[in-house]
Design brief:
The chain has about 500 residues and is α/β, with parallel strands linked by helices. It has 15 helices and 11 strands. The strands form 2 sheets. The chain has a 6-stranded mixed β-sheet with strand order 5-4-3-1-2-11. A 5-stranded parallel β-sheet has the order 7-6-8-9-10.
């Protein structure tokens, strides 16, 4: 590929604009950080009940296990030896900013509380009901889901109960494992005493039109059906790949690989690859065929070879985002409609480059690559900021802390004492692990918590103030408008 020569060079930002942009971030930092309450004695009280000495759990024993019909996959038991674990536990710290969205997700019930009737109304859209009583988990399953999303979600919850033993309060919730949120705001926003309160329903993503409560997805503990290893393992391999091939030595184009036929935006992306061949490469993924070949072309660490990687949603949000952001490449994020639990604190032009989702998508991608070609250091810094965010603010310690705080804050809103439903079944590690084999079994053993945490969860900051929320919206809007202005001035 030859070098790109611009008849009219990409415009450089005006100094007054960027001075204002920097000033906005400084002011915003003080707006948000000023809400942090003193931790002191309150923090010490929270730490009193956490284990201060090392305790190691007994390993899973499937030898004498009698498989439950409810969770029986028809596969015989597998024995995998545990590996020794190093480290002295995580350091105590303040939770990342995105944890504060927990308060926003639960705000619809902040004044009314959550009644048993509200919970039960979520059943029609739920995959299962989870009840935790006395640190033990009970599940009532309502429907089958694609692959094993429910199993690995419950596996993650059981690990949380081991990570923070005796610290997860009694609770009763409904969980949906489908892609799109369903608790629409418009159905519950009517005024008056006869208006119906929304049912609290947990799932993997939400949007601005729904009340669904977001929660970490199953792939953090592995997605064996497509050969995705647990997040901790994948992140380590991606970091090693980043060290092997530096950004400046990578291919100078945007890359995306996946199923193009599940949404119109992805089909549009495929069309863009034909009109901007030197700027974008799209590879269609046939998962059935890939499975027959042993997933030899699907290793994520082998896909960190381009300077730019595209993220685009499918039916709903996509679990692929965290792997793309961890690749050191500048992420070109096609305007998302959905969000998961950590994405609302990502900042355009700092963690990613925003791409239009309309007819200007192709032009937007072309401009992003040309901007990066002209501003290599800035483009590289955006990729590095994203991978740093993934490594430091989305490690498994933080994932478990987010789960802990979400469930803990949710439980505070319950107006009733959770009890075990008559049709619920207690689930254990054996119920989920013993009927599995192969990649599924390995993923479970690799993510098995072997001892409790040595420290408390990170310190959850209070809810955002209205001023902080306005600042968060502004810090996203300003760079998006700046890029839009740049694109309009380009003579494509």
């Amino acid at each position: 590929m030859g070098s790109i020569v611009h008849r009219n060079p990409i415009p450089k930002p005006y100094f007054p604009y960027f001075f204002f942009y920097v000033l906005l971030f400084v002011v915003g930092y003080f707006i948000i950080s000023s809400q942090i309450s003193p931790m002191g004695a309150r923090r010490e009280r929270e730490l009193q009940n956490y284990p201060q000495k090392e305790v190691e759990f007994s390993p899973i024993n499937c030898t004498a296990y009698s498989r439950s019909e409810k969770w029986d996959s028809g596969i015989g038991p597998t024995t995998i030896e545990e590996e020794e674990e190093d480290g002295d536990g995580k350091n105590e710290n303040t939770c990342p900013e995105y944890f504060r969205w927990i308060h926003e997700d639960l705000k619809p019930w902040a004044e009314t509380g959550i009644t048993r009737e509200m919970v039960e109304r979520g059943r029609e859209n739920a995959t299962f009901r989870l009840v935790i009583v006395g640190g033990r988990a009970y599940v009532e399953k309502y429907s089958e889901v694609f692959q094993r999303r429910d199993v690995f979600t419950l596996w993650g919850i059981l690990q949380l109960l081991r990570w923070y033993p005796d610290q997860i309060p009694d609770l009763d919730l409904m969980f949906a494992c489908e892609d799109q949120p369903t608790v629409f705001i418009g159905n519950y926003s009517g005024p008056g005493p006869n208006s119906t309160a929304p049912p609290p329903l947990f799932r993997y993503c939400g949007d601005d039109d729904t009340f669904d409560i977001v929660f970490p997805d199953w792939s953090f503990w592995g997605w064996p059906e497509i050969n995705l290893k647990p997040w901790e393992t994948e992140m380590k391999e991606l970091k090693e790949a980043n060290q092997r091939k530096k950004w400046i030595d990578r291919e100078n184009y945007a890359f995306w690989k996946g199923n193009t036929f599940i949404s119109m935006p992805r089909y549009q992306l495929l069309k863009c690859s034909r009109s901007t061949q030197s700027k974008l490469r799209v590879y269609m993924q046939d998962w059935q065929e890939e499975g027959k070949q042993g997933f030899k072309n699907s290793n994520l660490a082998d896909q960190c070879f381009s300077r730019y990687k595209v993220y685009i949603e499918g039916i709903g949000w996509s679990v692929s985002l965290k792997y793309i952001l961890a690749c050191d490449s500048m992420t070109l994020m096609v305007k998302p409609h959905f969000y998961d639990f950590f994405t609302r604190s990502l900042v355009p032009m700092h963690h990613y480059w925003p791409i239009k989702d309309d007819d200007d998508m192709c032009k937007s991608i072309k401009f992003a690559v040309e901007w990066g070609t002209t501003h290599k250091q800035k483009a590289q810094a955006i990729g590095k900021a994203a991978s740093k965010f993934m490594e430091e603010q989305l490690n498994m310690d933080k994932v478990y802390d987010y789960m802990f705080h979400t469930l803990n804050e949710y439980s505070k809103l319950l107006t009733f004492k959770p009890t075990i439903p008559p049709n619920a079944t207690e689930i254990s590690l054996n119920d989920l692990a013993c009927p599995t084999e192969g990649l599924a079994a390995k993923s479970m053993m690799d993510t098995l918590i072997k001892r409790p945490s040595f420290s408390s969860p990170c310190f959850l900051l209070p809810p955002f103030s209205p001023f902080a929320l306005d600042y968060i919206r502004t810090r996203k809007d300003i760079p998006i408008k700046q890029i839009d202005m740049w694109e309009k001035n380009m003579p494509f």
